[in-house]
Amino acid sequence: MSPRLANTTRILLSGVLLATSLIGVDRQLAKAENSAIPDNTKVEQPRERVTPSEPGLSKAVSEPTLSKALRNAAAPAPIEPFIRADAVALGQWLVVKTVKNLVDKPATSALQPDKDTKPAASPAQSPAARPTKPEPTAQTTSSPAPPKVSALPPAPSSNPTIDTYTEMRVALTRQASSVTVAASQGGVMVGTDGQLIQSLTAGVGYQISANDRGLLINDQPVSTAVWLEPDTGYVAVGDRWYRGRLLLLWQNGGVMAINYVMLQEYLYSVVGAEMSASWSLEALKAQAVAARSYAIVHTIRHQRRAYDLDDTQRYQAYKGITTEANSTQQAVHNTSGEFISYGGGVVESLYAANQGIVDDAHSGYGMSQTGALDLAEQGYQYYEILSAYYPNTSVGRIDISN
To answer: Is the pTM of this model over 0.90?
Structure first.
């Protein structure tokens, strides 16, 4: 089945406007061209703060916290965006990105670890097992005092955002000997040419395996690439259910299962997998913005391969609908389209379970999730929490209008 295409909307993040096209799983690169910004498309800029201080910013903090904040302020490391001359052409089902002149690795390795460094470690416990308020540990250090942010997040807008226009590609398996897939309400399997391969009965599992030539469905040979398109509802890989659709690829004699899922729905799960859904809403909102920024960066960084990121903590934990909750959905909706911005670019927002891991894994750059919870319980807003952990940044938003 051919992927569904919609009118393309161009989004300017900063600098040169670029666009390409994508058909099926073959992403073609186009040559960068300068172009005017459409009047109906914009990246919302943060609002100027009217007053020099607010009650939420005048809370007393402990001496160790103040000392650490002062030390950090004494020699701030420059945070640089991962993406520079950045434009994305967006369609309702496909997001198309041009790689030329888009990716720029900063020279400061302490701010942006090498790509092989584990970027988004999360608590080892499952969300359900994590306490609502974590117990202090030897690794956990005091949270920084949120600075007075110079800009508020963009004003609310009725426009749709990038969340419902960006389709993430999440690898669920790589080179598996076989996987079992299903569609909760039925669906079809089709080739990349749109030809029907298999009709799917609701709730029935189908085994996808591989030999040295291609894929097999219930031991019947098919091509090397198959789409699983559900009628409605969810798709399953193994014992987990996911939103979106699946692309099944033959990969070096094994099966790669890739979940194509809209950014908004992807974040529903990531927020609940990286934090407990019972945590403070402001902490969950900070997590949603950080996870969105991280995801946007990786749609650009890895566009030449078959997937953007996988479902493990090497990128961001993603467990399908299992980790969704009303609170995680609310956090995503309340921050729709918002990302961490520096100089008009999108910051690769690293984070980890606590400050000790941030210091060890990310050279001190990134958000402590337990620290974010602590600040949220003190009454700080999510953008204040983000300002504490990503200094000199602001919160921007990508709005879409057709």
So the answer is: no
